[in-house]
Design goal:
By secondary structure, this protein is α/β, with parallel strands linked by helices. The chain is built from 5 helices and 4 strands. It has one domain: Winged helix-like DNA-binding domain superfamily/Winged helix DNA-binding domain (Arc Repressor Mutant, subunit A), CATH 1.10.10.10. It has a 4-stranded mixed sheet, covered by helices on one side. Strand 1, helix 1 and strand 2 form a beta-alpha-beta unit. Helix 4 crosses helix 5. The longest helix has 15 residues.
Length: 131
């Protein structure tokens, strides 16, 4: 079946909060997230993903009960999974290798504590509602 024959699912926009002291860094991250088709929200607003600066840069934080920190690229991959795209289609859309797509999906699964794409989407949806 050709990709043209496959109807994409409605695009799911994630709400991302950026907490960075460096205005230039925050601006660059904001531009990347918006370019990926997602919304950037203020710190006090509800968010699906929170990016927080630690010390001299962004680093892994302990995951809270309701959120894992995702990279901008992982957010893009999660959105593409929500559209029903295959790994190959995600690679084409994001102009990255198939191996890189698989790496991002494995990282998403680990951060969300899931084993399947469906579980990943369900967990992301649950976290959005619990915030």
């Amino acid at each position: 079946m050709s990709e043209a024959a496959v109807k994409p699912l409605p695009v799911r926009r994630l709400r991302v909060s950026i907490r960075a002291e460096d205005p230039a860094l925050a601006s660059e991250l904001r531009a990347m997230i918006v370019a990926a088709g997602h919304d950037v929200v203020d710190a006090g607003e509800e968010a699906d993903v929170v990016m927080q600066e630690i010390g001299s840069g962004f680093a892994a934080l302990a995951e809270t009960e309701w959120r894992a920190l995702l990279t901008p690229r992982e957010i893009e991959v999660l959105g593409a999974i929500g559209e029903g795209l295959t790994n190959k289609a995600i690679a084409r859309r994001l102009d990255i290798s198939l191996h890189t797509v698989k790496f991002h999906i494995e990282s998403l699964f680990r951060k969300l504590g899931v084993r399947t794409r469906t579980e990943a989407l369900a967990k992301a949806s649950e976290r959005r509602l619990e915030i």
